[in-house]
Amino acid sequence: MVINRLKSTSIATALLLVALLAGVQANAADNPARILVSGEGSAEVAPDMALLQLTVTREADTARAALDANSAAMAEVLAAMQQLGIAKRDLQTSNFSIQPRYHHPRPEPSGERKPPQITGYVVRNSLAVRVRDISRVGEILDQSVTLGVNEGGQISFTNADPAEVIKQARISAVRDARDKASTLAVAAGVKLGDVMEISEQSYHPGPMPVARAEMMMARSASDAVPVATGENSYRVTVQMSFAIDQ
Predict the structure, then answer these.
(1) How far is the C-alpha of 100 from the C-alpha of 102, rounded, in Å?
(2) 181 to each of 41, 208, 237, how far by Cα in Å?
(3) Pair 139, 224: CB distance under 8 Å
(4) pLDDT of 69 strictly over 70
(5) SS3 for the chain, per residue?
(6) What is the pLDDT of residues 20-50, one digit of tens each?
């Protein structure tokens, strides 16, 4: 009986060892040795499109008067934009507001506080303008101020179709990752194998603000507002894993 029990225990132990070895081998097959790296690439390109934010602000004693004055000025701005070659699809109202202007009376000697009094109204109407001919940005800004734009003035530069420059950044990122993996493989004394996995993160810049200022009512003495366009930079990061050949 004792011998049979010992045999049964030995057989069970052997089966357990076989199962553990099989699990280790399966785990090794499912998770082969590999090198994990990240790579970064960027590419720069001159912008080919400008985005302008133009705001007309008018104040008056009544909301009606403020709205009428604002609407008249904005109508002239819209007409001028189209005369300058800006298509209707590139003009969009981005913000509109009517707000009361308050006067806050001083507290009475008794400490009593009177409620604020409405003394007038402020109407703001903002226009987003997409300019596809960057060479005309200064002219458009100058004309808009002449016609009544008196607030805002944010300028942003972007690209209508950045696909090609992003492709260049992507290629640069993959090359960077492969170079890193090769260096690690040499340092570790192993041979770099095939690519096992690759993923990407792209960083596409939004419109790059390069100028932001309060527009003045007076027209500049120059023919157009000076504008510097600079460059836009597009970045791509990749995560890659390479097999280690035995």
Answers:
(1) 6
(2) 15, 34, 15
(3) yes
(4) yes
(5) CHHHHHHHHHHHHHHHHHHHHHHHHHHHHHCCCEEEEEEEEEEEECCCEEEEEEEEEEEECCHHHHHHHHHHHHHHHHHHHHHCCCCHHHEEEEEEEEEEEEECCCCCCCCCCCCCEEEEEEEEEEEEEEECCHHHHHHHHHHHHHCCCCEEEEEEEECCCCHHHHHHHHHHHHHHHHHHHHHHHHHHCCEEEEEEEEEEEEECCCCEEEECCCCCCCCCCCCCCCCCCCCEEEEEEEEEEEEEEC
(6) 444 444 454 566 789 999 999 999 999 999 9
Domains of the chain from N-terminus onward = 30-47+160-206+232-246 (3.30.110.170), 49-158 (3.30.70.2970)
Which pTM value belongs to this model? 0.65
